[in-house]
Design brief:
Elements (H helix, E strand, L loop, with lengths): L3 E4 L4 E4 L7 E6 L10 H19 L3 E8 L15 H9 L3 H18 L7 E4 L4 H13 L3 E4 L2 E4 L35 E6 L17 E3 L1 H13 L3 E7 L3 H16 L4 E7 L2 E2 L16 H6 L4 H9 L7 E2 L2 H23 L9 H11 L5 H13 L5 H15 L15 H15 L3 H13 L2 E4 L6 E4 L1
Helix pairs in contact: 4-5, 4-6, 5-6, 8-9, 10-11, 11-12, 13-14
């Protein structure tokens, strides 16, 4: 069955055809490790994780590279402002390497909690300075660069079809909020190498053919993706905010340097919004990290489930109320799975239709809401053989990543007084004193337990 992916470059769904049969190269824009990554950042990695899982589910081998930005990402997209890592150094009083390692380790911990598959390789910007300088030298030899008082810049006017990825309207671009002219030749030119204002003042700076300084943010992704995936590779992913500047500049500098098409398929995930429909970001507030949600009692997989319910190209509204709803759904899945492990019901063993529907959903541009519908249909299917149902759910979970195999009944320590209340409720029900039974159920709930009535008798579950 074919896989269809929405390509930002062409603004349409396309049949995915890997460059090398059976193998896929993916580059996913990674974190800038100067601070904690919040759940808005993490939505982009949940999306790229689903992409990777879908490709693997289809029997393809995946080589995924994720970069770690530990230098060169400035506070402004217009090539001015401070380096975010250097700001963190001054704020925290630690070395840049210490800061980068700390926040990277936290980021990896979030991957584990959200059950995001690790990449084939993490690649660090500071460990690939040589490759970045080499790429800038290629651009220089081909006449795509010029020097200003603060760095070496890419001349976007010399690259044909600059802005094709973002469908940029150059007449509409104005200097100011996002585009600063300074001594650039063109509004859309961007820094390849920035000079240190004072040598020795920065913690991270290197010698180069143009003077002491550090690489621009965009050049690192081109240099590292080319090194590990080749000058022409299959898929590049990131958030939708990368399209107009970062990814547009990657395309320009990479294709100018190599003379080849850079990437075949560009995939972008939409923003996470707050309950009022505003983008969740560091500047607007309203942020949670995965660990903070964990501390509030929310299993990070509740957030994963929440993300699966909205297509990756649609903006997702987040609130604790929506997370509560996902928690309830996830808990229900877990209870059903636990019941299935105890059940020995024999029945229908034909899973062909369910598998086909699931495959059609995930291969239709990663349509996870539709895939979840199939998952729930199987979960609710009472005529199917129990072992077959469980096996099929676990098979689907290779894509969903909800850790179905780990779902087991948890031993609940019930206090004596709660047991007494449960016994009293059962007695009231036998005597058809239903109003009294309801009062006792509420008292049990107030003590942190929910009663689940079944054919084999009532069970207590911790809230």
């Amino acid at each position: 069955m074919v896989i269809q992916l929405y390509n930002t470059l062409t603004r349409k769904k396309e049949v995915f055809k890997p460059i090398k049969k059976g193998n896929v190269g993916i580059y996913s824009c990674g974190p800038t490790v100067y601070w904690y990554q919040h759940i808005g950042n993490l939505r982009a990695y949940l999306f790229s994780d689903i992409l990777k899982r879908v490709l693997l589910y289809n029997g393809l081998k995946v080589n995924q590279i994720i970069n770690v930005t530990d230098v060169g990402h400035l506070t402004s997209d217009s090539d001015d402002g401070d380096d975010k890592m250097e700001l963190a150094v001054r704020k925290e009083g630690r070395t840049a390497k210490q800061i980068a390692k700390f926040y990277f380790d936290e980021f990896v911990n979030y991957f584990v909690k959200l059950n995001i598959l690790p990449p084939s390789k993490w690649v660090w910007a500071t460990e690939h300075i040589k490759e970045q300088i080499s790429l800038i030298e290629k651009l220089e030899k081909k006449g795509f660069t010029y020097k200003t008082k603060d760095g070496i810049y890419f001349d976007s006017s010399k690259f044909k079809n600059y802005g094709k990825l973002a469908l940029l309207n150059f007449e509409g671009l104005k200097s100011g909020k996002r585009i600063a002219i300074a001594d650039k030749k063109n509004k859309t030119d961007f820094a390849l190498w920035k000079f240190s204002s004072e040598s020795g003042k920065r913690q991270q700076e290197w010698d180069s053919p143009w003077g002491v300084g550090f690489p621009g943010w965009h050049i690192e992704c081109s240099a590292m993706s080319i090194k590990y995936l080749g000058e022409h590779f299959d898929i590049h992913t990131g958030g939708e905010d990368h399209v107009p500047i970062h990814h547009t500049n990657e395309v320009a500098q990479s294709e100018a340097a190599t003379g080849k098409k850079f990437v075949n398929y560009w995939l972008h995930g939409a923003f996470l919004l707050d309950s009022d429909g505003k983008k969740i970001s560091k500047s607007t507030g309203g942020l949670y990290t995965v660990s903070e949600l964990d501390d509030l009692g929310y299993n990070p997989l509740f957030y994963r489930y929440l993300s699966l319910q909205t297509h990756y190209r649609k903006q997702l509204n987040f609130s604790l109320e929506s997370l509560d709803a996902s928690k309830n759904a996830y808990d229900k899945i877990k209870r059903r799975v636990v019941e299935l492990r105890k059940d020995n019901h024999s029945g229908n063993t034909d899973v062909g239709e369910h598998k086909l529907r699931f495959l059609e959903a995930i291969n239709d541009d990663l349509n996870m809401p539709r895939a979840l519908e199939v998952f729930w249909d199987v979960l609710d299917e009472t005529d199917m053989d129990t072992r077959i149902r469980l096996s099929l759910l676990e098979d689907f979970d290779r894509v969903l990543g909800l850790r179905i195999k780990d779902m087991k009944e948890e031993k609940v320590n019930v206090p004596r007084d709660v047991k007494d209340l449960l016994a009293a409720r059962q007695e009231a029900r036998k005597k058809k004193m239903f109003a009294e039974a309801d009062i006792l159920r509420q008292r049990i709930k107030e003590r942190g337990f929910v009663i689940e009535d079944s054919e084999s008798g009532p069970r207590l579950r911790k809230i």
